[in-house]
Amino acid sequence: MGGNLSNMENNHRSSKSSNHILTFHSTAKWKAHFDASKETNKLMVIDFTATWCGPCKYMDPVIQEFAAQYTNVEFIKIDVDELMGVAQEFQVQAMPTFILMKKGKVVDKVVGAKKEELKKLLEKHLN
Questions:
Q1: 111 near 82, Cβ under 8 Å?
Q2: What is the pLDDT of residue 20?
Q3: 54-69 and 115-126 helices, crossing angle to 10°
Q4: What are the residue boundaries of the structural domains of the chain, listed by start?
Q5: With respect to CATH, is domain 18-126 assigned 3.40.30.10?
Q6: Which residues are known catalytic residues?
Q7: Residue 91: its pLDDT value, please?
Q8: Which of 1, 19, 41, 92 is a Cys-bridge partner for 87, taking CB atoms 3.0 to 4.6 Å apart?
């Protein structure tokens, strides 16, 4: 059932985005994934971002680095202009906003390009 992705998938790298990060372009697909995630105890980090946002671009390589480092955490990228309804649901008011969730519940939140704060919260919620 919900096992780990094989390491073979990690060999196919794309310069645009990392295999460790899921990106959603449809609210329906996001909702289905979100509902399924409520059944697991896996930490989920949602990166609310926008293509025009400078601090978001700064955090891109950071998120890719974290996704490669914390393979037991699910990293998700949501463009606020693309999925406005999802951003509103999570009351996102500034970018980037990182929402940390477990079992469908928000456990923490980082607003802004704060690498160290995000890393600290990742470590906290993994234990």
A1: no
A2: 83
A3: 30
A4: 18-126
A5: yes
A6: 53, 56
A7: 96
A8: 92
